[in-house]
Structure formats: structure tokens, C-alpha cells
């Protein structure tokens, strides 16, 4: 263990970097260069901190580690409390890993207001990491909502033609969900007298209240996830966002919803979670089948990947609410793998978009000849998204299906069709873009991946393969925390069932 | 025995002397002395703040129970003085630019301020009414201060007529309460009401009229009609003053009235305030959407914000009252910042007020645009800006007392309101630039803006100081 505030340093280092960037003055070109470098180095340092944390993280313990506590909103008894456990540690790593990737991907693509872009991204990184390490519900909410500010500006300032509409839609949709969660949080606070997450996990809430609270939290996490039918902001936001924005949106922001379910809904509101599990299964199955079918007919590459994200997130929600070891480990794995794969797929779209300035699938075709490296990278990522064994995508989906099969075979069967449909739309996309008729001359004259692009994509590809072959690196570390979660979940459910039967017995006794 | 202890009233006495002294200076020196008088008034306010801090805030009532000094009054007065200083500092250059360089302006502001300070310290309906009228009469004149402008005169007349009506209702309500309780002293009224078995219908009537009169002053729906017109018509310096200060005084008065003499009637007034809060939030959120004048937009925003503040009053607990005080404090500072930006909206010597005039501000005046964006995010209650914490404590108070529906509707309207705050950001950041604003920004305005931004962003780092002091201030209302 370490005895300096590692997590706080990691969270607020990007803010410090952003402040320094804001102070850069001088010639426009110099400001651009300096702010890019400053942002990159800051995010790399953050990544170094994250890796250091990972090496010191004790995977055999289910307890929160690197815990820091301090006074914050003292008169209300709300404290600054951060820490990581097996569930959050990989999300912190994912955030810290994808931010430098995004900054590098925007190196040449973002040409106007570079300084502001870098500031927005660093702030975003702070808020993302903060969301995953917060161990106080109000602190969590502050970070969770704070994400909206930089993301709104990233979509709105550097986005495509319909950026304003998409930025609004993203902001208002997520805000609407989140404020309901805020009321839920306050109600939880009013009933338990604390907003400390570890304490909340151990306290129990009356069943009739649980249902309302669960719905309030669900409103927020389902929109963030996004689940059908509140997913419609995602395709718009993805299509209009700049490449780096799409990467971080798909890579990290969507995971906040799933993380929220794991951190709040399941441990704090177990009875309601069990009660609403079928409801979640239904929505997720619809999401998987329906959005996969929509993805089949998309003509816009980004939109197709966006819809595939909704489908993949459907697996995550199913896995979480099976409340089985395989299901939950699978959904965490699926979130990590989806974060890498879809992030990288958006980078791939960005690569060809930078050259042709269109995302229409029609406008490409046969580019395997002039871009062989690109075709290879794209293929591995595409297969990862499909869930081919040997890639990380397979592990997540397989574990989730294994988990849900123990709970509900029908849901398992329907979800499995999503895998087939996923293969269909991804393979069609790949065929049309990379192979297919060689009709578009401008597409055929595109240069292959540059050094910088290769440097971005290859590490992700290697990670995808590595996690596919050795999933144990992840599952070993998350195992104890997941086991603890499930044990406590079942214990609470059993306790509630005992109370219920004894109450029913009392009523019967009174009736006689 | 008559109590001649005037020490708790010293800040008011000092300010009155300063005001009258400056009046003599102005009368002999003429309008050229406006700037000097403005800054002297500001210095006077700062000095009175120091006096206020040194008189001691332990609870005591003087002048035969007319005037009470306690932690609540002290804190509210401090807020009022800060607000007055900010609005005076913002207005000086504006008066010169608009050709309204008349020495009465700072003096009227001072007298309005004295009225407000008496309001939050009043412990008697007569003192209340005197303070209220001193404030209102000064503000009526200020609203019409731009004599050559039709809009300003219209605003002044509108404000005066509706204000007079509301004062009339307030007086009528006071007379009913006096008739049924036999006293105008808050403490006597309070004990009489709590000793009564059944509540006489006349007292309830009186309460309703008093609340209607005060709702007008805080511009709560359905007594809000004057707000958009007066905000739009009055000179911006005066609008800034309206947005920043009088609502604090009126809210302070309302809280003292409801939590002290009328606490026994809480069942009755909770329903009324509940309705006022709900309607204000809804109207503030929905009516703001269609506005294209920034001053009208801010008027609706202030209506909505008063709705959120009233939620804390509905909660009717010490936590709720503390939440209202904190909310008002944060709102005051945000408004000061926003109006500092609005006053910078000038092209070729003319003030412009269209939201579209802000287009592309982030290109030609990035500092101003970022300041405004931060303030707008804060106003819409997005963390980590200070505005979020204001909303957090208010909704927390409501939920703690079981007002789930009110809190839920409140947060939903805040999403609607977020739309128009976002529109300002959208215009500044996403739209193509319009013409450049006149520069440079006056020094005093820069300072005010800088302090506001520092507060809004820095609040998250050390919130407990402000939360503790405002909760501490409000707790005395529940001490008895």
C-alpha cells in the first residue's frame, strides 16, 4: 500500500494540467503546440499513476483500497471519500488509458480552438476518474454530472453539422435522468442519514421505498448506459461528436451507467433489483435484437457502431441483473472490452474520415489494396466486436450468456441471437468498406495508416487480443469484489424473505 | 422602562448619516460629483459592514421590541451590504455611459439598503412596514431613473402601481392580524396565536394577504407580472440591483415572519408557499424558453430561482431555512456576475440586450465568454459549480421533510430551465461571431466578475465554511 493520496493526485492532476494550459500565452501556433504537448504529458502522467496504482492493487482483497477521507460538506455529514475496489479499478485504468489515446487522435484532426479542446478533455478525464473512485454518493454525483459540461462543449464546438441539436439532446437527456437520481440519493440520505457508499451498502432500506429509489437510479443509469428506449441520444451524439469525443463517449461514459448499477442498485437496493430483474432483461433483449436490426440497415459508419454499442450494453445490463458470478464478471469484462474495441472502431472510422471527410459506407470500398495495415487492424477489432474467441469481446459475451443461462434460458437464447446479428452487421460493414467493388477512386487513393495512427491503434489491438487469451488478469482481480457483492446481495435477499414469511405468518396467525 | 440601547442599530444609523451627508454634498456640488458620491457610498457600505461585524450578533431586541438583532439578521444584513457594494461597483461606469450621471443614484441605493436592513431586523409589523416602504419607494424611483427613456419610465410606473397595490394588501393583512391578536409585536402575535385553540378565520385571511404582499416583493408566481417588464425597462444598473439585493431582504423578512410569529399557523401557510414555489419554478422554467432579451430571460430565471428558494421555506425546518440562506447567498453572487457580463454588452456606445448579440463571444472575448458560461452552468445547477450546492441543500431539506413530489417537480423544472441557460452558452460558443463589443471592461466590473467566478468555482473546494455559517444563521429562527 502507499501512504500518499494517490487517487486524489490522479484525479486532480488533469485539472492542474488544464489550468496550466489556460495560462499559455503567445503566438497562436506556439499555443497550439504547447497545449497539445502539455495535455498529452499530463494524461500520460495520469496513466503512469494509474498503472502504479494497478501494480499496488491487492487483487485478493474485496475491500476498498487507497482510501482517502476528509471533511467536505461537513455540516451535512457528507465527506470527501475515495477508494477503489476490484469493480472500479479497471474503469479507472480504462479512463486513464483512453484519454491520451483521444488526445493523440485529435493531434491533427482538431484544428480550431486547440487549447480549449485540450482543456475540455483534461477536465473530462478528471471527472471520469472521479466518478469511478468516489465513495460518497454526493461526490459521485458531482463527478457524474460534471462530465456533462466538457462533453457538451466537445460535441457542440468541434462536432459535425448537426452538433447543436446533438449536444442539447445529449445534455438534456442525461441531465433529466441524473436529477431524478439526485432526488433518489437525497431520499436515501434522509432514510439512512449517510451518503457514504460503503456504509450505504451495508444498511438496508425498507422494501416499499426501494422500488421508488431503484426507479430513480434506473432513470439515470439507463439513460447513461443507454438502454432501449432511452438510447436515442447516443446515435446522434456519436455521429456529430469529433472522433476523440466518440471514443471517450463509447469507451468510458457509457460505462458509468453500468458501474452505477453495480455500485448503487445491486448492493443498496437488492430486493428492488431482484424484483425488476425481469423488466431489465426484457428491455435489454429488445435492445440487443432491435438495435442490431437497426444497425444492419445503417449507411453511416459511426451510426452503425453507435447502435452496436447499444446492443453490447444490453449484454452488460443482462449480466449485471443475473446477480451471478459469471454474469457480473462477464458484464464488467464486456464493458472493458467494449470500451477498448468500440473506442478503437471509432478511431478507425476517424482515420478514413480524416482522409475523405465522409462516413457514408457507400463512398468507400476495396480499400484493402491501398490500406493493408488499416484493413488488418480494422479486421481484428471488427472480429473482437463480433465476439470471436481469442478476442476480449468473446470472453465478456460468453460469461454473460453463461450467467443468464442459469437464471433464464429464454433470455439467454434471445440474447444469443444478438451475437449472430452482431456478426452480420459487422461483417457486412467490413465487407463493404474494406473489400467490395473498387468504384470510388478517391477512396482507393487514400494513404495507409501513419505512424501516429498505428501507434494509437496497435496497443489497443494488442490489449484486445491479450485480454482475449488471458482473461484471468482481469477476472482474478475483480473476482473477490464480485463475490463479496453477490454474497451480500443474497444475504440481504434471504433476510428480506425471512422477514416477509414471518410477517405473512403473523398475519395468518392474527387471522386465525 | 424605555430601552435606549442603540448599539445594534448602529450600522443603519451610520448608513443614514452617510446617506444624508452625501445628499448635502450632492446638492451643493451637482451631478459632476456622482462618481465621488458613488465611491463614497461604497466606502460607507464597507464601513457599515465592519460596524455590523463588531456590534455582536447575540440575540437582543431594542427600541421597545421593534428592532431585533440576531445571527440571522446579522448574516442577512452582511449579504445585503455585499450585494449593494457589488451593484454600486458595477453601476458607476454604466451611469456615465448612459448619460444618467445624477448624484441621487447612489443615495437612493443607500436608502433602499437601509430599508432592507430594517426589514430583516424588524420584530414588529410597523417596523416591517417602514423598512419595506423605505426600500420600495427608493426602488420605484430607481426603476424610472432613466428619465429620457420611455421604457424606464414605464417600468417605474408599473413597478410603483403594482408595488403600491401589494403594500396595500400587506397593510390590510397586518390590520386583520392586529385586530385578532391585539398586537403588532411579533413575539406577542406569536404567543397569542400558539395559545389559541381554534384558529379564527380572520387571522388566516390576514396571513394570506400578508403573504400576497410579500410574494410580490420576492416576485413569486402569481405575483410576478411586474418582474419581466421592470427588469427589461429599468436601466441595467438598476436591474442588477433588483436581481441581486431586494429579494434577499424580502426572503429574510418572509422567513422571520413565517418561522417566528406564524409558526403556529404553519399548516395554513405551507400550502400557500408550496403553491407559490411550484408555480414559480414552472413559470420560471417554461416562460424563459421563448425569451430573446437577456434581461427578460434573467427575470424569468429569477422567478424560477425564488421558487427553488421557497422550497426550503416549505420544508419549514432549521435545515430548510439554512438552505434558503445559502441558496440566496449563492444566487446573489451568480447574479452579480451575470449582470457584470450583461453590462459589458455594448456596441458602438449603445447597450444591446438580445441573446443573439452574444453570438460568437468566445472568439472575440474568450474571458468574458468563459465567465458567462461558468455562471450559466452554475445557474442551471450543474456540479461542480456553486449553483449545484444551492439546489442540493434546498432539495435535501425538502426530501428530509418528506416533500418528494415537490422535490421531483423541482429537479424536473431545473432541467427545463437548463435549456435556456444552455442556449446562452450555445450562442456564445457554437454560433458564428457577431460584431465585437466595446472595450475595455472597466476595472471595477472586472474585479466583481473575477470574485464571482472565483466563488462559483472555488465553492466546491471549501463548501463547509459557507454551509456552516448560513445554517448557523438560520438556526436562531428555530431557537425559541
**Tally of DSSP β-strands of chain A:** 2
How many discrete domains of chain B?
1
The N- and C-terminal alpha carbons of chain B lie at a distance of 24 Å
Main sheet of chain A, how many strands, which sense, barrel? 2 strands, antiparallel
Order of helices and strands of chain B: HHEEHHHHHHHHHHHHEEHHHHHH
Question: Taking all residues together, what is the mean pLDDT of chain B?
Answer: 91
Shape by Cα distribution of chain B: globular
Specify the helix fraction band of chain B.
over 70%
What is the number of helical segments of chain A per DSSP (H or I, 4+ residues)? 20
Q: Mean pLDDT of chain A, rounded to whole units?
A: 88
Radius of gyration of chain A: 23 Å
Estimated structural class of chain A: mainly alpha
Sequence stretches where pLDDT stays below 50 over 5 or more residues of chain A: none
Helix and strand run of chain A: HHEEHHHHHHHHHHHHHHHHHH
Oligomer description:
heterodimer
What percentage of amino acids of chain B are in beta strands? under 5%
Biggest β-sheet of chain B: count, sense, barrel? 2 strands, antiparallel
In order across it, which strands form the biggest sheet of chain B?
Answer: 1-2
Major protein interface: A-B, 34 and 33 residues
The percent range for helix content of chain A is: over 70%
Number of alpha- plus pi-helical segments of chain B: 20
